[in-house]
Amino acid sequence: MQSKGIIKFFLVLFTLIVGIQFLYMIPTRKVESQAEAYARDRSASSSEKDKETDYKVARTAYLDSMSSEKIFKVPLIKDFTYEELKSKQLALGLDLKGGMSIILQVDLRDFIRSLANQSEDPEFIKALDQASERFKRSQTDYVTLFGEEFQKVANGKKLANIFILNETFRDQINFETPDGEVIRMIREMANETVKLTFKRLKDRIDKTGVVQPNVSLDENRDLILVELPGFDNPERARKLLQATAKLEFYDVYRITDAGISAAFLEADNKLKRMSSGVDTTLEEVSMDTTYSYVYDSLGQVVDSTLQLVEAGAEDLSGGGPLLSQLMLNMSAEGLSSPPAVMGTASKNKKNIVTEYLNRPDIKALFPRDLEFRWSQKPGKDFTTGETTDAYSLYAIRKKRGSDAAPLEGDRVTDARTSSDPTTGEVVVSLNMDTRGARIWADMTTKAAQDNNREVAILLDDEVVSAPSVRQPITGG
């Protein structure tokens, strides 16, 4: 009798779990059906060659836009978003759901060559070649194999002679440093690089909308295993996982700079007039203020003048297509975020805000050297400390006639991670080469003198941080 009771208990428990899973699946399945209908409609006019790709792109875009929408409500308990419900569903895995499995090898050969300033030393190159061949059939890590192979071909040459020219090693080694010590330092830096690569890949995969992906690291072989259940777009996965991380540093505009907030209001009014079909040629129109920018011969903003512009015959002072999606960082009470933040928007509103701001007629309202970028992660509630769904919008200042940032990652000689003792978050410390240190000193000096203005640090076109510069940083 006792065994029957246990069986009944587990049967009831199993039935309850299945019921809850169906409860989670019903609203998400409805959204996915809408995504499929939307994708079929968007790809209907595509050529046979592009139809499947366009369908997948449209379906993914729809699901991304719905990720933070509340689609299921339990009265008096909680409202659930699509993303929350998907995360609570049982992971079916590749064997049941299909998808993609990818093994990535971190290329430490190129990493070691970069540490050696692309040295063409014959023994150095030969050791790399032989280590690469052994690595194909060995379980030993690449750095150890390289050290062993260099010992075989060195003919008395020391590794320190090759790596001492790199500014990263200049304060750590000399011409008498043993090869074993040099290999140990290379291994430490390689471990940091592999861990940063692993973390960056996880961040990228999280943005794909794939539910319950599996990303694991084999530290002994510097291998990263990626499993994407239900993912069926190999080309997108390839671009996502193989793209080189791009680190950039930019000067920024502030929402309090002359004409910036006025440009947002005028952009919202302009979009509102167009969406409502207001005839802007009417005789009776109200007037609004905006700024006209004055540029120098290089296209830099040197002055701005206040002017009246037509705002339409009706009250168009806000709440239009743009500012109904973007919460502007300016109100009667003052700023709700640091001044470098233009405004905030939820995850599923970012794309539409970006589309509005990238329209040629809207871009013309802002300075020509201004481009918008979103924060990499959502912000936190200042009261509770909990992560919100609000992403911050920044306005970076680009160099006229160039897509290159004033300072890029190729000037970084060393990157190390540590843990912030206060927040527990990962902190990355950077060292720069001589030229990078000079550019960084110039940027931070100007920012510090300009009312402690912020400098934006971008990774893959997303703002990781925008710290206020209190004093010039001249040590690189």
Average residue-wise pLDDT: 79
3D shape = globular
Give the strand tally.
17
Task: Return the structural class.
Answer: alpha+beta
In angstroms, what is the radius of gyration?
27 Å
* Helicity range: 40-55%
N-C termini distance: 76 Å
Main sheet: strands, sense, barrel = 8 strands, antiparallel
Uncertain parts = 279-317
- How many DSSP helices? 14
Percentage of β-strand residues: 15-25%
Based on the model shown, name its key terms.
alpha+beta; 8-stranded antiparallel β-sheet; 3-stranded antiparallel β-sheet
Protein described:
With 476 residues, this protein is an alpha+beta fold. It has helices spanning 2-43, 48-66, 82-88, 93-97, 108-115, 122-135, 142-153, 159-163, 179-206, 234-242, 260-276, 350-357, 360-363, 434-449; strands at residues 70-74, 78-81, 99-105, 214-218, 223-229, 247-252, 286-295, 301-312, 327-328, 341-346, 370-374, 390-397, 407-408, 412-419, 426-432, 455-459, 462-465. Strands 6, 9, 10, 11, 12, 13, 16 and 17 form an eight-stranded antiparallel sheet that branches. Strand 1 and strand 2 form a beta hairpin. Helix 6 crosses helix 7. Mean pLDDT is 79; it is low at 279-317.
Write the layout of secondary structure elements.
Blueprint: H1 2-43, H2 48-66, E1 70-74, E2 78-81, H3 82-88, H4 93-97, E3 99-105, H5 108-115, H6 122-135, H7 142-153, H8 159-163, H9 179-206, E4 214-218, E5 223-229, H10 234-242, E6 247-252, H11 260-276, E7 286-295, E8 301-312, E9 327-328, E10 341-346, H12 350-357, H13 360-363, E11 370-374, E12 390-397, E13 407-408, E14 412-419, E15 426-432, H14 434-449, E16 455-459, E17 462-465
Antiparallel strand pairs: 1-2, 3-5, 4-5, 6-12, 6-13, 6-16, 7-8, 9-10, 10-12, 11-12, 14-15, 16-17
